Amino acid sequence: MGDQIVIKVVLVIALIVLMGILLVPRKGARPLAIRRLTYLLLLIAAIAAVVFPGWLTWLASLVGVGRGTDLLLYGLVVVFISHSMASKSENAASDQRFTALARRIAIDDAESAAEAGQRLASGR
Amino acid sequence: MNTDTWLVVPLYNEGAVVGDVIRHARETFCKIVCVDDGSSDNSADVAREAGAVVVTHPVNLGQGAALQTGITYALGDPQAQYFVTFDSDGQHRTEDAARMVQRLRTEDLDVVLGSRFLDAKVEAGAMKRLVLKTAVMFERITTRLKVTDTHNGLRAFSRFGVEKIHIRQNRMAHGSEILQEIARNNLRYAEEPVHIIYTDYSRAKGQSLWNSVNILNELFLDR
Questions:
Q1: What residue numbers bound the domain in which B177 lies?
Q2: Which of B35, B103, B27 is nearest to B69 (CA)?
Q3: What is the SS3 assignment for B173?
Q4: N or C: less crowded end of chain B, CB within 10 Å?
Q5: Which residues does residue B34 pair with via DSSP β-bridges, in sequence order?
Q6: Residue of A25, A96, A116 with shortest CB distance to B168
Q7: How much is the average pLDDT of A7-23?
Q8: Residue B3 in contact with residue B30, Cβ under 8 Å?
């Protein structure tokens, strides 16, 4: 337990940051840019891990994980969770647009509210 | 007969009861809009025959979306001053709704919320009561509104109040969202004791403990 403290701290912090991102609404160019840079860094890291497998093991032992493959798995978990969260929130946004469209169709297809109001108020 | 008021009734597969509900409500409120949320039964026809205007969602969107559609529709009537959300399954009483609208007319209020816990006649079971009380505690903490019943579908709004509220939670979390909107816009609100009629029919359809988990999930994750 004691010798794995570094990776534990790193993973727990990463997951807490993800929770923070989840609970605080975000908009604008900066978060988008950060997300794209993160994906870029991940790609570079992936290439490095393929070309120099030893590098991953070296990094793993540095943070207290036995093997490079374990570190890769941990990284995958964090990336996977953050990716599902991002796609969930994109889904919600597109749901909103879809709802607005369906609402407009529903109201346009119905008898106009002003006419219906007059008809009902006059008792048929 | 309350020509300044629209009753907004979300409708989803309630063909068995909605006819009686609408006919009875029409004795007090002449203007009723039912939002058919993609029902697969004859709910829409039954409601139309009973004298309601029916607005039909082309696809099923959820109860929250249906409420917002009904409100948006009713706002199109320039005579409309008051808006009441009312359930289609017969668990709300029209005399309660009429009293709530009367309060909007006579008091300086934007919203009147129905509360079953201000009334002595609560028929809910122990488990249901525990779930509802927990929900109330949660809402009080997150919105700082002093409410006693957070998941009551019977609400009355003034035109000013309803124009401020935008329901984005399509499915079940709209109850919490309406409270958040009231708090965010500093609307003047009050609660009115109402009596909920729990029939076997509504009980079979009612919200369960599991649903509160779904509502929390919608509030925090689906945005």
A1: 5-221
A2: B35
A3: coil
A4: N
A5: B9, B54
A6: A96
A7: 75
A8: yes
Give the pairing type, strands B155-158 and B111-115: antiparallel
- Structural contact between residues B141 and B186, judged by C-beta atoms closer than 8 angstroms: no
ipTM for the whole complex: 0.84
How far is residue B21's CA from residue B71's CA, in Å, rounded to a whole number? 19
Rounded average pLDDT over A20-27? 62
CATH number at residue B209: 3.90.550.10
Number of domains in chain B: 1
Q: How far is the C-alpha of A80 from the C-alpha of B188, rounded, in Å?
A: 45
Neighbours of B208 (CB within 10 A): 11
pLDDT at A104: 96
Decide: A96 and A103 in contact? Cβ < 8 Å. no
The predicted pLDDT at position B3 comes to: 92
**Domain regions of chain A by residue span:** 2-121
pLDDT, chain A, mean = 82
What's the pTM value of the predicted model, to 2 decimals? 0.80
CB contact under 8 A, B77 and A117: yes
The distance of B28 to chain A (nearest Cα, Å) reads 12
Eight-state DSSP code of residue B155: E
Q: Which residues of A touch B12 (CB under 8 A)?
A: none
